[in-house]
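Batch 3, record 17
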Amino acid sequence: MIRVLLLLTGLLLTSEPQDVQLFNLNAIPNFSADEIEFFEKEIRPVLVQHCYECHSTDAAELKAGLFVDSREGLIKGGESGTAMIPGKPADSLLVASIKYEANEMPPDRKLEQRQIDAMTKWIEMGAPWPKVTSSTSHEPSSTKDWRQFDWKAAQQSHWAWKPVQRPSVPVVDAEMDANPIDRFVEARRQHAARGPVALAEAPILARRIYLDLIGVLPTLEETLAFSKSASTDRQKAVESLVGKLLDTTMYGQRWARHWLDVARFSEGQGGFLDNVELKEAWRYRDWVVDALNQDLPINDFIRLQIAGDLSGNPSDAIATGFFALGPTYQSDGGDPDSVAQSQGETLDDRIDLLTRGLLGITGSCARCHDHKFDPIPQADYYSLAGVFMNTSMQALPLDSSDVVKNFSENKEAIESLSKRINPLTKKIKKENREATAEERIQLDEWTAKLEELKKNPKSNLNVAHTLHDTGSEDMKVALRGNLRKTGDIAPRQFLRLLVGENPIRFTKGSGREELAAAIVEPRNPLTARVFVNRVWMHHFGAGLVRTPSNFGSLGESPTHPELLDWLTCEFIDGGWSLKSLHKRIMTSATYQRSSTFEEQSFKIDSDNRWLWRMNPRRMDVEIWRDSLLSVTGDLDASLTGPSFNKVTESKRRTLYAKVSRNGDVFESDSFLRRFDFPLMRATVEQRPNSIVPQQFLFLMNSDFMVQRAKSLVARIQSYSPSDEARIRQAYELLYSRSPETVELKMGLAFLNATKDGQELSSWDRFAQVLLSSNEFMYIR
Amino acid sequence: MFHRSPFPPLSRRDALRQMGAGFGMMGLAGVLDQSCPLANTARASTPASGAAFASPLAPKPSHFAPKAKYVIQLFMPGGPSQVDTFDYKPEIAKHAGERPECVDRKSLRNTKMGLMPSPYSFQQYGQCGKFVSEIFPHVGEMVDDICFIHSMHTDTPEHAGAMMMMNAGHLQPSRPSMGAWLVYGLGTENQDLPGFVAMSPRAQPRNKLANWSNAFLPGAYTGTYVNIHEMRSERILEDLRNGWLPRAEQRQQADLLTRLNELDLQRQQQDQHLEASIQAMEMAFRMQFAVPDAFDTSQETKATLAMYGDSEYAKGCLLARRLIERGVRMVQLSHSIDGYDIAWDTGHGNIVDGHRALAVACDQGIAALIKDLKMRGLFDETLIVWGGEFGRAPTSEGQKGRDHDHYGFTTWMAGGGVKAGITYGETDEFGLTAVKDRVHVHDLHATILHLMGLDHERLTYRYSGRDYRLTDVHGKVVHGILA
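Prediction for the assembled complex:
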């Protein structure tokens, strides 16, 4: 092969001056049907049969960088230059090669003269090739010379790449002096003629705050208490309620779920091995709950999830489940192409999570070629991927070294005893006899010892799925994403988009610590902005940037750029405290607005970009199920521990339901998926909101709903003997409002018209309807 | 009922959605007007309020006029051998035991043995004179309705990856299946049934749900799986039956719920989701009765049942007809006879018995399906696609077996929009590698979408920061097989 390459290089020197012209030939001219037919009949089969094995996208190992499975590929040529010049067979290396004049291709056997003639004729014709409608062409992976690229200018070219700068709070209206958020919002709204709607009524606001922060409905008593204190000092009442709820452990359980969506958390490995359960995955989930309840600063929170294993503290290592629990793809049979493809997919998962999840940029788009829209060279993808090439997953023992030692010794002792007992008993059985007295004594002694050893309470070690370093080598750019066809080395370093043209190389182990530091570096314009925007989104149903995982040029611009930056500065300056961020947002009037419909404002701004009201939101499945359980007094809000599967029987919070990667292994999967729990294959930016009949089959027919109805009835019946009073109570409990007269009438009429049946009383049926209503399912 | 007027303008997104649904309703009305063979069965009914609703399953307009409306995929997991079924290669016998250069390809699956003649005899059938193996006599009778593609090829000789490629256009189980894409693109014509049904007797094909998964598409587009072997009507969908109340009393509950939801909608106004959920609840109510009915084959005549025969796969074929007759967009019917998730992989050790048993178990049912669809006038609007994830090599692996072959294999299509009684593409003289008119799986997908009226480059879904397609960045419509 080397010989061939040298020859190619020598030969092709002659064609260099034509390069500029050649480039234009890449566009396929229009060919007649006859010409195309000639190609398909005479040329393509020859290329497929004799050349593809080494020179096509299907080639196991590409030779000389030459593709002959596209016209551009031939014109572009291999590592040494063009192989074919349309219209000029005499100058085309392809012809010289197949004639065995320049070099000998195909190497095993010369083509038949007929085929050589056809090839010559075809090039003469201008190399007709059918137009490829989609992009299967072999455009170069990298089209720009990134060494000449002006990174400084690029950093100023798009809002999200610019540094975060603290804006001054606008002065809008003397009456609105209270909260800077409201002032930023009001300043933007002045484009629109109409003002915002009124603040929400206290009971509705209480319901909203509870659902937002802890993910369950308030009790009647809690709603009343808030309403009462709000009637004297609303602002103080909100502050104190928010503070109180942030101090409950249910807060961490609720907000962990938002982060677990970003982390595409599941308890199955993914790939073809989804049935391989990640049994200890729950430890990462519980780590997130705990970290949020402790208000662990978010920069540390992120840092530990990238490199916590390197701190030496096992509980920090659990945090790396963020990556370690990701889908790990495998080849089904060890075919080398499939192995490489699977490895590429696994790496891509890590890069996708890192870039979209933490940085709000679509880094994966640079896997096969430079990012088409944002300044992310393909090499930068492999600079990051290199970090994960040197990282792998391990089961890390969490117990103290003494416990681990004791456990291992115990296990070894059991094994060695078994190795003595088993052969002997087998031998006796095989010889079809009783044990001799001597053997009996020996066996009894061993068995007794074994029993003793087995009494050791530690049946299993506590382990966590974590990352660990396996090397410190840079990887090469994978041409068109194929790890078996590599290009230049991509040194491990951070994105040039964010740190400029000469990033500091990562040298410590895999480089994860340095990567983590670069990500939470306060000057990084993305991490904190992206995080703050996600928090805003969960409070309002829509982010200030409505593409929360894509701040790039294809994403949306912020509706309130100054507000986003102001919040981000507050967040960073306040020590990355998530709880403080909640307080800041929730004490604003903007957050406390009613969600009521207002026709004129809707006409002007139906998407509510200027925040004239609170967005009404449908509950996600966790809030909905947890609230169904809490309002009937059934919820088990206990913290931590392995997940449960029987989602319609268990009373635990939905956060603890088992989730497989493909969503098809556990009973809980099918329930969750029915209610829009997304597939945890890639980082999730926002829950979908689909309405399908299968959801209503659950509402109408499931045991779960009937049980909730019965529980609710048992609760309400204790309040009052009269149907009317009970209906009122139910409305206040479920919807935080009184029933309208017509609703009362309809309820009473239903109760009168139906008779208690064997299984379900009238009230059971009525309660099931109330629990199944849209209003219950909404946060308003 | 309730009524809102005048309508304030909708937001751009909502307006688009409502327009989509509006067109959908027009399409639906069209369907209802047509004198379809089952005009009175439970086709979707217009919502009571007459308002456009945003059901994700409502019929949607295609990109251009479709040739077919429904797809029945007869999936043969494990890889049926082309040279023992439909790709007749007499040259193999002439060179038995030899290992000519063109079958000596480098691959993981590089068995060292020579060419192994098919253990089966072939005979010509029909006007077109197509050679078909003795193990498919019933399908042989139908060759004049079939378009054989002998030049299929795919990216990997491994089952799991190749099955994903065939069913979802990607080697790893992370993308929506073709059926999910079809329902996403076209909706479905019967709102009382799922739009996409996957079935198999006994074993689910390898990768299970990933073969009919919606992946990142909205949940409404996922395939509903039914195991034909243990099929009980109430188990077809979860919570399909109400175990507490008779229909009339259940209706009282549903009526109250609808009225309360309508009151809520009046207060909230302008909420498409609320409107959609009122409709979805009504659909759910009807599904309770429509679904068991669709799966009840006891309603068929004796003659029909006899035509299909009594194999489990044949029952699947019959159910497939009942489903598409009711407007289900796509049925994926996978083969299995003994609980093996890659049934045709019996080819490794024993082509002779293994392939024969599998063929016997599906041959009659498949032929009956074609006949039945023709008799009912549904053949022209239904696209049948038969094939596995790859084929098997003409060289032998051990005594009687053949190893995987992804360089060339056979898929056939029949029905709406494809040429009948033709053979497209060729493998080499021994049947290993597709050499003429090569058709990649992406091309097959592009062609199926095309026949359904969809441009595979325009059927996209934005996820993870980019637009995804069934065909990714590949795929060419195979114009040579279009009628």
